[in-house]
Structures are given as C-alpha cells and as structure tokens.
C-alpha cells in the first residue's frame, strides 16, 4: 500500500462517512485527519489477504476515532446541538416523526435498534447515502442495505 496516496485516494470517502456519523463539517474534517494519522501509524497491521478491503479497514478506524470522540464529549449536548441544526436533511421516516412526534422520541427509538440498523438508518437519513454506498461501507450488497433499512423503519414504527 502506497502511504503517499492514501489520503488522495480515500480522503473524500472517509470524510463523507464521518460526516454521516457526526453531522458536523468541522468535526468530520478533524476526525478525517485523525483517521489518516492513525491509519499511517498502523498501516503495517493491514494485511491485504483478500478478506478485507482497504476502504473497509479505513472505515473501521474512522468509526473508532469517532467513538473515542464521543467518549470525550458530553453526548447529551451533541444530541441537542444536532437536533437544533437546520442543515440536517430529514425526509420520509423522519418527516413523519417531526410532524407527529417529538424529535427526541425518534432518536430514543433509533437508539434501541441494533448497532448495524442504527448506523444504516443514520447513514441513509442523515448522511443521504445511497443503499449502494451503505452496502459498500458494510461490505454487503445494496439489497442487504435496503432490507436492513426497511427492517429498522419497521422496528421504529412498531413502538407507535
């Protein structure tokens, strides 16, 4: 793996992934830099054995960097800030809750989902990623991402 071109080849992809997780441009930029710093430090731990793609390895590092950031900040304050953000793109499922329910209730219900379903829900609804892009992040098919998203919606609606 050529260390010199890693950021050029994967920088935008990792930034978009982190933006879907953080919903914050500045934080996503900061975490992207930290992700590549960590990746360069541990590049010798990546083994190109055909089982994992390099982009998936980077996504795993990015997710860990993000989780570490969450542990350092007040989670409740971040939730309040993200709910106040008017730049967030909400549609279909979330629109129903904004019209009929409290936003906090939606996020409480989403928080009860399994980690994969919750992340797919956030990537689709907040990150506006396609099912194909989501499937790529999870190393699964576009159809798997679509079905998992549909099941997450059903679980959220089940509690109504």
TrEMBL record:
**GO molecular function terms here?**
DNA binding; sigma factor activity
The parts of the chain that form a coiled coil are none
Q: Which residues form the RNA polymerase sigma factor 70 region 4 type domain?
A: 112-154
What's in the keyword line of the UniProt record? DNA-binding, Sigma factor, Transcription, Transcription regulation
Has UniProt tagged this entry with the keyword Transcription regulation? Answer: yes
**Family under the similarity heading:** Belongs to the sigma-70 factor family. ECF subfamily.
Pfam assignment, any one? Sigma70_r2
Might you name a Gene Ontology BP term for this protein? DNA-templated transcription initiation
Cite the RNA polymerase sigma-70 region domain residue spans from the record.
Answer: 6-73
Protein name in UniProt: RNA polymerase subunit sigma-24
């Amino acid at each position: 793996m050529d260390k010199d071109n890693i950021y050029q080849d994967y920088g935008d992809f990792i930034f978009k992934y982190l933006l879907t997780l953080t919903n914050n441009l500045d934080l996503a930029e900061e975490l992207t830099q930290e992700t590549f710093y960590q990746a360069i430090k541990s590049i010798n731990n990546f083994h190109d054995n055909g089982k994992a793609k390099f982009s998936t390895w980077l996504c795993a590092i990015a997710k860990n960097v993000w989780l570490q950031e969450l542990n350092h900040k007040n989670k409740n304050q971040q939730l309040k800030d993200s709910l106040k953000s008017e730049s967030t793109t909400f549609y279909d499922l979330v629109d129903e809750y904004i019209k009929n329910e409290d936003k906090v209730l939606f996020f409480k219900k989403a928080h009860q989902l399994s980690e994969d379903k919750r992340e797919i829900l956030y990537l689709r609804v907040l990150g506006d990623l396609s099912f194909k892009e989501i499937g790529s992040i999870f190393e699964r098919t576009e159809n798997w991402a679509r079905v998992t998203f549909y099941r997450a919606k059903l679980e959220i609606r089940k509690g109504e």
